Hints:
Muramoyl-pentapeptide Carboxypeptidase, domain 1, mainly alpha
Amino acid sequence: MRKIGVTIWRVTVIILVNLVAAGLLLNLTGHVPALSKVGSQGPEVTKIQTKLQEQGLYSGKIDGIYGSGTQQAVIKFQKQQGLTPDGIAGPATLQALGITDQSTGGSVGDFSSDDVALLARVVSAEARGEPYTGQVAVAAVILNRIEHPSFPNTLAGVIYQPGAFSCLTDGGINAPVADSAYKAVRDAINGWDPSGGAIYYYNPVKSTNKWIFSRPIITTIGEHRFCS
């Protein structure tokens, strides 16, 4: 009996140590929302199946279980929407399906879900291939312009100001939106500004605007220079 008691005590200690380690890991890395994919279960999967069924893309049972049938329906939907057809319901796919909350492009602070989606499109197009910090910085520049007297005082006004963003003229804004762009937008709206308060940014290799080179540089992130 004593040996059994010791064994149980040891197992309990091991479990407690693992739980503490997991907690520390979450504190160090931050919580990363899980994406709905094959094997996922729960209310979000039920919503995905319902939305896909409404569009005639899913004929299986709405059971909240993300199986191969749901995956194939998601791939069909992603192809229709011009999204990466990976069969994973990430933020961009959920946004396109109309399943939104603060972790998937929904309203954040004073900005509506439409605002978040628009800003994410611009960030994705303007900062594609840039480090994550650079994506947040691009979003921050746009938000900084809203508060600056030299620019329109609305998000749409800033984004659609003639000549403001090349993605509006070269069609980049219509490209599939990177999932990281939604997270970058949320971080910027919540106050993170890696640009240091910049109201302009440019790629010195691609820019043909001589005036922009005269602006005081605040910081450089990736291929972009951020300036005042």
